[in-house]
Specification:
Elements (H helix, E strand, L loop, with lengths): L4 E6 L3 H17 L2 E8 L11 H25 L5 E7 L2 H8 L5 E5 L13 H9 L4 E4 L9 E4 L4 H17 L3 E7 L17 H22 L5 E7 L2 H8 L5 E5 L7 H5 L1 H9 L4 E4 L4
Parallel strand pairs: 1-2, 1-4, 2-3, 4-5, 6-7, 6-9, 7-8, 9-10
Antiparallel strand pairs: 5-10
Helix pairs in contact: 1-2, 3-4, 5-6, 7-9
Length: 287
């Protein structure tokens, strides 16, 4: 894509700097530019926010921090087009605005800088839930080896994640392991309702075959990417977290709608952000 851009959020702390280096490698593989964004805000009402020399000092400090982070990106990927940006505002809001047309938004998992008030922790969850495009949350082993793991089910979100995973695998020269986790536990029927009778084995087989078919279709669209499919009984988040220990990236689709981050993101994606052992990429289909 001509003019493709990746946006990465920083706060000057080690977790966000790991995200910068990860984003630099991703941008280099896409031949994209990288915008390094640091947002800071005052922890007082706007009417009481400092003015004059104190405000200028805070802006200069933010610019220095983001310039250093941008230099880290250049050192990690020489020749990369890197643009630093320091902005006054709530971090999640600033990053979401900055990434409106970006092909990827990258954040770390935790970090606080006392001087600027920039926080990446809850911020990573907010942007992962509310972004309109893909979000990579760099956590666990920031530079792991291994292939790309993608969660698959019958949703449109999973279809978008599957396509993204294959495209990323092609860029990184690695393979895709597509995982369909199926919970087989049957809850007791509600009081006064007849029991739901069905063949668990048959249901599992049908769901697994449907997911395998979707993966095979994606594989045909990306013939140069090796892939394998695994139908596994168990909780999806548990299964994907276990697989993350041998992966370089876990990709899942964003599920759900509503006003709460957990609903917008989906419980699987939310749990991966807290537990995965490698970076997690949440795929949002753009409207």
């Amino acid at each position: 894509m001509a003019g493709e851009e990746i946006v990465v959020g920083v706060d000057g702390e080690p977790p966000s700097l790991a995200a910068v280096r990860w984003a630099a490698a991703a941008a280099a593989r896409r031949a994209a530019s990288l915008r390094v964004v640091l947002a800071y805000h005052w922890r007082v009402p706007a009417a009481l926010a400092p003015r004059g020399e104190l405000a200028e000092t805070a802006q200069q400090l933010a610019e220095l921090l983001v310039a250093n982070a941008a230099q880290d990106a250049r050192d990690a990927s020489p020749g990369l087009d890197v643009r630093p940006e320091a902005a006054l505002g709530l971090p999640a809001e600033v990053l979401l605005r900055a990434a409106t047309s970006a092909s990827l938004l990258v954040v770390g998992t935790r970090g606080r800088h006392r001087a600027t008030g920039a926080v990446l922790g809850s911020v990573s969850q907010q942007v992962a839930a509310h972004a309109t495009g893909p979000v990579a949350v760099v956590r666990g082993r920031a530079y792991p080896s291994g292939g790309i793991v993608v969660g698959v089910d019958d949703s449109a979100a999973a279809g978008a994640a599957l396509e993204f995973a294959f495209a990323e695998a092609a860029r990184w020269g690695t393979d895709v392991a597509a995982v369909r986790a199926i919970e087989t536990t049957i809850s007791p029927p509600a009081l006064g309702l007849p029991p739901l009778l069905h063949d668990i084995a048959e249901t599992t087989r049908a769901l697994t075959e449907a997911a395998a078919g979707r993966v095979a279709e994606a594989g045909r669209r990306h013939p140069d990417v090796p892939w394998e499919f695994h139908g596994i009984a168990g909780d999806a988040a548990d299964v994907l977290c276990d697989r993350s220990r041998q992966a370089r990236l876990v990709v899942v689709g964003s599920r759900g709608h509503g006003g709460f981050a957990g609903l917008l993101l989906g419980s699987v994606g939310l749990r991966l952000l807290h537990r995965a052992d490698c970076p997690v990429l949440i795929v949002h289909a753009r409207p």
